[in-house]
Amino acid sequence: MTIKTISTTPFMDQKPGTSGLRKRVSVFMRRNYVENFVQSVFDSLEGYQGKTLVIGGDGRYFNDVAIQKAIKIASANGFGAVLVGQGGLLSTPGASHVIRRHHAFGGLVLSASHNPGGPDGDFGIKYNVGNGGPAPEKITEAIFARSTVIDRYLIADAPDVDLSRIGTHHSGGMVVEVIDPVDDYAELMETLFDFEKIRVMFASGFRMRFDAMHAITGPYATRILEEKLGAPKGTVMNGTPSPDFGGGHPDPNLVYAKDLYDLMMSADAPDFGAASDGDGDRNLIIGKGRFVTPSDSLAVLAANAPLAPGYATGIAGIARSMPTSAAADRVAEKLGIEMHETPTGWKFFGNLLDAGRVTICGEESAGTGSNHVREKDGLWAVLLWLNILASRQQSVDQIVREHWATYGRNYYTRHDYDEVDSAAANSLVEDLRNRLPEFVGQELAGRRVTYADDFTYHDPIDGSTSARQGIRIGFADGSRIVLRLSGTGTVGATLRLYLERYEPAHGRHDLETQAALQPLIDIAESIAAIQARTGRSAPSVIT
Ligand code: G1P
Ligand code: ZN
Q1: What is the pLDDT of residues 431-489, one digit of tens each?
Q2: How many CB atoms lie within 10 A of CB 393?
Q3: What is the pTM of this model?
């Protein structure tokens, strides 16, 4: 086999974040761009000679081109084998599981998650380590450092692999095993959930809609929901992955999954509605007439997890990202188990999961998951909900209301200001950070501030510290205002404002969310002047 050494020049202008390198497709199409990144990843790793690498993506535009390059570069760099999903497809949680199950050295996940696809959309590449989770900062920093000095990459002079055919292929001297993308994952789900009970529920007339948003969960949901669990054909909507997600935006929120939301609020709504994003790690849960916020969903799933066989012996602990509402904290308190508040980003859950300190994790941004993989997992959340519904024989609405009556309700909303001028956003956060000490002990619109800080996380497992993870202002009545800059936007800055108000178990649980939070929205504007300083009269997205 011939290995070509191609000379190249440094290329990255910005450190890849938690979600890896994410850019416009046109940037990834630049000469040597993919090659440089993949080679920078391999140059930052040690000990992979002869080992297995997993590669798969969400099927978006350019997935097919990038994957062939990655295979040839892996071959030239001495990997022993590559496991790749048929058609180059693997969902993010699916890839995490394949890495773990096959004891691979690591994996490359090709996706830009919920960002739009197509020639004018986004693309991304992320490296995951042997535990199946996103690479820790130490590695992403090494990748970036390497990318600034890279001067060559190695690539096998071999033909493209036919990824449509399951079975053993070769690329140069390396084995390429094309696997069914769904098999391993479906098998894992069957060990966690009571498929028989869910089957009986579907057989007795339970109806659901799962919106795959023309993205990766289509084949997974069709196989599991329709073929294995016997949900009627048509349960999965938009189930065929398309390179541009059918021209849509594969983000399962109330804006982009509006059709599903409208259906679920209509008179002939099915019993259950759900959706997942581009790469299958996020979830949206809507009952008949009842939208469940991701923060509430995390709390309900944690409280009811033992109804599923995979969690029958109970859960060790719960972790949530800092901006996620404290609803789950109430559950942990009642169960007497550990509760952890971590910075935004799934990677912060990895150590806690590996150490067995927590079983269930979640983020307000529609990410929920458990120790079964090291990524958040959209379909997992949907299946756990189905298991709970089948066991409790109640509607989503009843379950949520009973939850509030037991633990109290955390009214919660997130206001996003997208594509804001970066300098304006940075100075806004900076100024607010400097003023935090003056708020403590003050009354703001009748609420006393008990703490105000820029969140610092001390990882209890590896002792590392992550500072400046977002501004938190906490009030004596359990309310909170959180403000942080997004780390995943591709244009300008995105400011996220999170608002939360706690209403005890015997309190009022039927208020309209935005109205319930209006006093906190007003306080936030009065101290941070987001609208005044960004020139926006309203948030771009309200969740
Ligand atoms: C967003 C979400 C965060 C999630 C990340 C990757 O990051 O807020 O919870 O982990 O996407 O899916 P952000 O843009 O806020 O930095
Ligand atoms: Zn995603």
Answers
A1: 999 999 999 999 988 899 999 999 999 999 999 999 999 999 999 999 999 999 998 77
A2: 8
A3: 0.94
Counting ligands in written order, the one closest to the CA of 378 is 2
In the beta sheet, which residues pair with residue 363?
A: 367
Quote the distance between the C-alpha of residue 349 and its chain's center.
12
Cβ–Cβ under 8 Å, residues 69 and 179: no
- Evaluate if residue 290 carries a pLDDT over 90: yes
Q: Ligand 1 atom closest to Cα of 346?
A: 10
Cα separation, 311 vs 172, whole angstroms: 44
Token pair recorded at residue 291: 């939208």
Q: Which ligand 1 atom lies nearest to the CA of residue 18?
A: 6
Helix, strand, or coil here: 344? coil
175 and 67 in a common domain: yes
Residue 127 phi, psi (nearest 5): -105, 130
Q: How far is the CA of 90 from the centre of ligand 1 (A)?
A: 21
pLDDT band at 347 (very low <50, low <70, confident <90, very high): confident
**Which residue type, as a one-letter code, is found at position 191?**
T
Backbone angles phi, psi at 515, to 5 degrees: -65, -40
In the listed set 181, 214, 244, which residue is the last one of a domain according to the structure?
181
Cα within 13 Å of Cα(440), Cβ side: 10
The two three-digit tokens of residue 203, written as one number? 């057989």
Q: What is the rounded distance in angstroms from the CA atom of residue 497 to the CA atom of residue 488?
A: 15
Which residue in 209, 313, 199 sits closest to 252, CA to CA?
A: 209
Cα distance between residue 74 and residue 107, in whole Å? 11
346 close to ligand 1 (CB < 6 Angstrom): yes
State whether 220 and 273 are in the same domain.
yes
Q: CA 367, CA 235: separation in Å to the nearest integer?
A: 22
Residue 508 burial (10 A CB sphere; 0-12, 13-18, 19+): exposed
Same domain, 473 and 391: no
End-to-end CA distance of the chain: 53
Looking at the fold, whether 323 and 384 belong to one and the same domain comes out as yes
- CATH number of domain containing 436: 3.30.310.50
Single out the residue of 98, 24, 16, 27 nearest to residue 57, CA to CA: 98
DSSP 81: E
| Owning domain of residue 229 | 185-407
**Is 486 annotated in the active site?**
no
Query: Mean of the per-residue pLDDT values for the chain?
Result: 94
Task: Please tell me the number of the ligand nearest to residue 488's CA.
Answer: 1
- E strands, 213-271, in order: 236-237
The C-alpha atoms of residue 534 and residue 354 are separated, in whole angstroms, by: 41
